Amino acid sequence: xxxxxxxxxxxxxxxxxxxxxxxxxxxxxxxxxxxxxxxxxxxxxxxxxxxxxxxxxxxxxxxxxxxxxxxxxxxxxxxxxxxxxxxxxxxxxxxxxxxxxxxxxxxxxxxxxxxxx
Amino acid sequence: xxxxxxxxxxxxxxxxxxxxxxxxxxxxxxxxxxxxxxxxxxxxxxxxxxxxxxxxxxxxxxxxxxxxxxxxxxxxxxxxxxxxxxxxxxxxxxxxxxxxxxxxxxxxxxxxxxxxxxxxxxxxxxxxxxxxxxxxxxxxxxxxxxxxxxxxx
Lengths: 117, 153
Prior knowledge:
The complex is a heterodimer of chains A (about 120) and B (about 150). In chain A, about 85% of the residues lie in helices and about 0% in strands. Chain A is globular. Chain A has one domain (about 1-110). Chain A is mainly α. Chain A has helices at about 1-25, 30-45, 50-55, 55-60, 65-80, 85-110. The longest helix of chain A has 27 residues, at about 85-110. By secondary structure, chain B is mainly alpha-helical. Chain B has 2 domains: about 15-120, no CATH class; about 120-153. Chain B has helices at about 5-50, 55-75, 75-85, 85-90, 95-105, 110-120, 120-150. In chain B, helix 1 (about 5-50) packs across helix 2. The radius of gyration of chain B is 22 Å and the shape is extended. Classes of the chains: A mainly alpha (about 120), B mainly alpha (about 150). Chains A and B meet through helix 1, helix 2, helix 4, helix 5 and helix 6 of A and helix 1, helix 2, helix 4, helix 5 and helix 6 of B.
Protein backbone atom coordinates (compact mmCIF):
# COMPACT_ATOMS: atom_id res chain seq x y z
CA UNK A 1 0.00 0.00 0.00
CA UNK A 2 2.86 2.38 0.78
CA UNK A 3 4.03 1.91 -2.81
CA UNK A 4 0.69 3.12 -4.17
CA UNK A 5 0.69 6.10 -1.81
CA UNK A 6 4.33 6.87 -2.63
CA UNK A 7 3.42 6.89 -6.31
CA UNK A 8 0.43 9.19 -6.23
CA UNK A 9 1.63 11.57 -3.52
CA UNK A 10 5.08 11.90 -5.10
CA UNK A 11 3.46 12.24 -8.51
CA UNK A 12 1.07 14.88 -7.20
CA UNK A 13 3.89 17.01 -5.76
CA UNK A 14 5.64 16.84 -9.14
CA UNK A 15 2.40 17.66 -10.96
CA UNK A 16 2.04 20.83 -8.84
CA UNK A 17 5.57 21.80 -9.90
CA UNK A 18 4.67 21.18 -13.55
CA UNK A 19 1.60 23.41 -13.30
CA UNK A 20 3.81 26.15 -11.81
CA UNK A 21 6.34 25.70 -14.64
CA UNK A 22 3.68 25.94 -17.35
CA UNK A 23 1.49 28.63 -15.83
CA UNK A 24 3.89 30.98 -14.05
CA UNK A 25 7.13 30.61 -16.02
CA UNK A 26 9.03 30.23 -12.75
CA UNK A 27 12.56 28.99 -13.40
CA UNK A 28 13.54 25.52 -12.10
CA UNK A 29 15.76 27.13 -9.47
CA UNK A 30 12.87 29.18 -8.09
CA UNK A 31 10.60 26.16 -8.02
CA UNK A 32 13.15 24.14 -6.04
CA UNK A 33 13.64 27.04 -3.60
CA UNK A 34 9.88 27.46 -3.19
CA UNK A 35 9.42 23.75 -2.55
CA UNK A 36 12.23 23.46 -0.02
CA UNK A 37 10.90 26.47 1.93
CA UNK A 38 7.37 25.03 1.74
CA UNK A 39 8.77 21.80 3.19
CA UNK A 40 10.43 23.73 6.02
CA UNK A 41 7.18 25.55 6.86
CA UNK A 42 5.05 22.40 6.69
CA UNK A 43 7.69 20.62 8.78
CA UNK A 44 7.64 23.41 11.36
CA UNK A 45 3.87 23.08 11.62
CA UNK A 46 4.23 19.33 12.08
CA UNK A 47 2.09 18.63 9.02
CA UNK A 48 4.70 17.12 6.75
CA UNK A 49 5.52 14.18 9.02
CA UNK A 50 1.93 13.02 8.67
CA UNK A 51 2.35 13.01 4.89
CA UNK A 52 5.64 11.10 5.32
CA UNK A 53 3.88 8.49 7.49
CA UNK A 54 1.24 8.10 4.81
CA UNK A 55 3.32 8.21 1.63
CA UNK A 56 6.86 7.22 2.65
CA UNK A 57 9.28 7.96 -0.16
CA UNK A 58 6.49 9.81 -1.98
CA UNK A 59 7.04 12.56 0.58
CA UNK A 60 10.75 12.14 1.44
CA UNK A 61 12.16 11.88 -2.11
CA UNK A 62 10.74 15.20 -3.42
CA UNK A 63 12.89 18.20 -2.43
CA UNK A 64 10.05 19.28 -0.08
CA UNK A 65 11.24 16.46 2.19
CA UNK A 66 14.66 18.09 2.36
CA UNK A 67 13.13 21.23 3.89
CA UNK A 68 11.27 19.02 6.33
CA UNK A 69 14.46 17.21 7.40
CA UNK A 70 16.26 20.54 7.94
CA UNK A 71 13.51 21.96 10.13
CA UNK A 72 12.91 18.77 12.10
CA UNK A 73 16.63 18.57 12.88
CA UNK A 74 16.62 22.21 13.97
CA UNK A 75 13.63 21.77 16.29
CA UNK A 76 15.05 18.59 17.80
CA UNK A 77 18.40 20.27 18.46
CA UNK A 78 16.75 23.38 19.98
CA UNK A 79 14.80 21.13 22.29
CA UNK A 80 17.89 19.16 23.33
CA UNK A 81 20.70 21.72 23.48
CA UNK A 82 18.95 25.12 23.31
CA UNK A 83 19.69 28.16 21.14
CA UNK A 84 22.82 26.75 19.50
CA UNK A 85 20.61 24.14 17.91
CA UNK A 86 19.08 26.84 15.69
CA UNK A 87 22.31 26.79 13.71
CA UNK A 88 23.53 23.21 14.22
CA UNK A 89 20.42 21.04 14.03
CA UNK A 90 19.30 21.54 10.45
CA UNK A 91 22.49 20.84 8.56
CA UNK A 92 23.36 18.05 11.02
CA UNK A 93 20.14 16.24 10.15
CA UNK A 94 20.62 16.81 6.42
CA UNK A 95 24.38 16.15 6.44
CA UNK A 96 24.14 12.83 4.57
CA UNK A 97 22.22 14.33 1.68
CA UNK A 98 24.31 17.49 1.47
CA UNK A 99 27.64 15.62 1.54
CA UNK A 100 26.38 13.06 -0.96
CA UNK A 101 25.30 15.86 -3.30
CA UNK A 102 28.69 17.57 -3.05
CA UNK A 103 30.83 14.41 -3.30
CA UNK A 104 28.87 12.50 -5.95
CA UNK A 105 28.14 15.71 -7.83
CA UNK A 106 31.84 16.53 -7.94
CA UNK A 107 32.91 13.01 -8.95
CA UNK A 108 30.36 12.66 -11.73
CA UNK A 109 31.18 16.11 -13.11
CA UNK A 110 34.88 15.19 -13.15
CA UNK A 111 34.33 11.77 -14.79
CA UNK A 112 31.71 12.65 -17.40
CA UNK A 113 31.56 15.29 -20.09
CA UNK A 114 28.44 16.99 -21.43
CA UNK A 115 27.04 15.30 -24.52
CA UNK A 116 27.39 17.42 -27.65
CA UNK A 117 23.96 18.49 -28.79
CA UNK B 1 -17.34 21.50 -39.25
CA UNK B 2 -15.30 23.77 -41.51
CA UNK B 3 -12.94 26.47 -40.34
CA UNK B 4 -11.51 29.40 -42.20
CA UNK B 5 -7.79 29.76 -41.78
CA UNK B 6 -8.20 32.48 -39.17
CA UNK B 7 -10.81 30.63 -37.17
CA UNK B 8 -8.61 27.58 -37.18
CA UNK B 9 -5.69 29.61 -35.81
CA UNK B 10 -7.88 30.94 -33.01
CA UNK B 11 -9.11 27.46 -32.32
CA UNK B 12 -5.55 26.18 -32.07
CA UNK B 13 -4.50 28.98 -29.74
CA UNK B 14 -7.43 28.29 -27.48
CA UNK B 15 -6.99 24.57 -27.48
CA UNK B 16 -3.28 23.78 -27.56
CA UNK B 17 -2.01 25.46 -24.36
CA UNK B 18 -4.47 23.44 -22.36
CA UNK B 19 -3.91 20.08 -23.98
CA UNK B 20 -0.14 20.52 -23.67
CA UNK B 21 -0.61 21.50 -20.02
CA UNK B 22 -2.57 18.32 -19.35
CA UNK B 23 0.05 16.27 -21.17
CA UNK B 24 2.92 17.92 -19.28
CA UNK B 25 1.23 17.51 -15.90
CA UNK B 26 0.39 13.89 -16.59
CA UNK B 27 3.98 13.16 -17.65
CA UNK B 28 5.31 14.91 -14.52
CA UNK B 29 2.88 12.93 -12.36
CA UNK B 30 3.90 9.58 -13.86
CA UNK B 31 7.65 10.17 -13.93
CA UNK B 32 7.74 11.84 -10.49
CA UNK B 33 5.58 9.10 -9.01
CA UNK B 34 7.78 6.41 -10.56
CA UNK B 35 10.95 7.98 -9.12
CA UNK B 36 9.35 8.02 -5.67
CA UNK B 37 8.39 4.34 -6.06
CA UNK B 38 12.06 3.57 -6.81
CA UNK B 39 12.93 5.45 -3.60
CA UNK B 40 10.34 3.45 -1.67
CA UNK B 41 11.73 0.17 -3.04
CA UNK B 42 15.27 1.13 -2.00
CA UNK B 43 13.90 2.07 1.43
CA UNK B 44 12.29 -1.36 1.83
CA UNK B 45 15.53 -3.10 0.83
CA UNK B 46 17.61 -1.09 3.30
CA UNK B 47 15.10 -1.57 6.08
CA UNK B 48 14.28 -5.25 5.59
CA UNK B 49 17.57 -6.64 4.32
CA UNK B 50 20.05 -4.04 5.58
CA UNK B 51 18.53 -3.91 9.06
CA UNK B 52 18.65 -0.10 9.14
CA UNK B 53 16.36 1.92 11.41
CA UNK B 54 13.66 4.08 9.79
CA UNK B 55 15.62 7.32 10.05
CA UNK B 56 18.93 5.84 8.92
CA UNK B 57 17.21 4.10 6.02
CA UNK B 58 15.63 7.44 4.95
CA UNK B 59 19.04 9.09 4.92
CA UNK B 60 20.52 6.14 3.02
CA UNK B 61 17.71 6.41 0.45
CA UNK B 62 18.45 10.13 -0.07
CA UNK B 63 22.15 9.35 -0.53
CA UNK B 64 21.40 6.54 -2.99
CA UNK B 65 18.93 8.64 -4.99
CA UNK B 66 21.44 11.49 -5.16
CA UNK B 67 24.07 9.06 -6.42
CA UNK B 68 21.69 7.72 -9.07
CA UNK B 69 20.64 11.24 -10.11
CA UNK B 70 24.26 12.34 -10.42
CA UNK B 71 25.31 9.19 -12.31
CA UNK B 72 22.37 9.28 -14.70
CA UNK B 73 23.04 12.95 -15.38
CA UNK B 74 26.67 12.18 -16.22
CA UNK B 75 25.58 9.43 -18.60
CA UNK B 76 22.95 11.74 -20.19
CA UNK B 77 20.07 9.42 -19.26
CA UNK B 78 18.52 11.91 -16.84
CA UNK B 79 18.58 14.74 -19.38
CA UNK B 80 16.58 12.62 -21.81
CA UNK B 81 14.13 11.61 -19.09
CA UNK B 82 13.77 15.29 -18.10
CA UNK B 83 12.66 16.24 -21.61
CA UNK B 84 9.63 14.04 -21.07
CA UNK B 85 9.14 14.26 -17.32
CA UNK B 86 9.65 18.00 -16.74
CA UNK B 87 8.67 18.77 -13.15
CA UNK B 88 8.61 15.04 -12.46
CA UNK B 89 12.38 14.92 -12.85
CA UNK B 90 13.04 18.33 -11.28
CA UNK B 91 11.38 17.99 -7.88
CA UNK B 92 12.67 14.59 -6.66
CA UNK B 93 16.07 14.67 -4.95
CA UNK B 94 17.51 13.12 -8.13
CA UNK B 95 16.67 16.44 -9.83
CA UNK B 96 18.66 18.26 -7.16
CA UNK B 97 21.66 16.06 -8.06
CA UNK B 98 20.98 16.75 -11.74
CA UNK B 99 21.00 20.51 -11.06
CA UNK B 100 24.45 20.09 -9.47
CA UNK B 101 26.11 17.85 -12.06
CA UNK B 102 24.89 19.37 -15.29
CA UNK B 103 26.22 22.94 -14.86
CA UNK B 104 29.38 21.50 -13.24
CA UNK B 105 30.09 19.35 -16.34
CA UNK B 106 29.24 22.23 -18.64
CA UNK B 107 31.65 24.66 -16.99
CA UNK B 108 34.48 22.18 -16.40
CA UNK B 109 36.33 23.76 -19.34
CA UNK B 110 36.61 26.98 -17.28
CA UNK B 111 38.64 25.15 -14.67
CA UNK B 112 38.11 22.85 -11.71
CA UNK B 113 37.79 25.61 -9.13
CA UNK B 114 35.90 28.59 -10.55
CA UNK B 115 34.33 26.48 -13.32
CA UNK B 116 33.26 23.05 -12.13
CA UNK B 117 33.20 23.60 -8.37
CA UNK B 118 31.65 27.07 -8.44
CA UNK B 119 28.94 26.19 -10.95
CA UNK B 120 27.92 23.09 -9.00
CA UNK B 121 25.99 25.47 -6.79
CA UNK B 122 24.27 27.67 -9.35
CA UNK B 123 20.93 26.04 -8.45
CA UNK B 124 21.85 23.92 -5.42
CA UNK B 125 23.30 27.00 -3.70
CA UNK B 126 20.02 28.94 -3.56
CA UNK B 127 18.22 25.80 -2.40
CA UNK B 128 20.67 25.43 0.49
CA UNK B 129 20.59 29.16 1.31
CA UNK B 130 16.80 29.38 1.53
CA UNK B 131 16.36 25.92 3.03
CA UNK B 132 18.87 26.53 5.82
CA UNK B 133 17.69 30.11 6.47
CA UNK B 134 14.06 28.96 6.64
CA UNK B 135 14.92 26.20 9.09
CA UNK B 136 16.99 28.59 11.22
CA UNK B 137 14.12 31.11 11.23
CA UNK B 138 11.68 28.43 12.33
CA UNK B 139 14.21 27.35 14.95
CA UNK B 140 14.25 30.93 16.32
CA UNK B 141 10.44 31.01 16.47
CA UNK B 142 10.42 27.63 18.18
CA UNK B 143 13.07 28.75 20.66
CA UNK B 144 11.17 31.94 21.56
CA UNK B 145 7.89 30.03 21.90
CA UNK B 146 9.71 27.75 24.32
CA UNK B 147 10.04 30.64 26.81
CA UNK B 148 6.29 31.11 26.93
CA UNK B 149 5.36 27.47 27.13
CA UNK B 150 8.21 26.33 29.35
CA UNK B 151 9.88 24.36 26.56
CA UNK B 152 6.84 22.27 25.79
CA UNK B 153 5.63 22.62 22.21
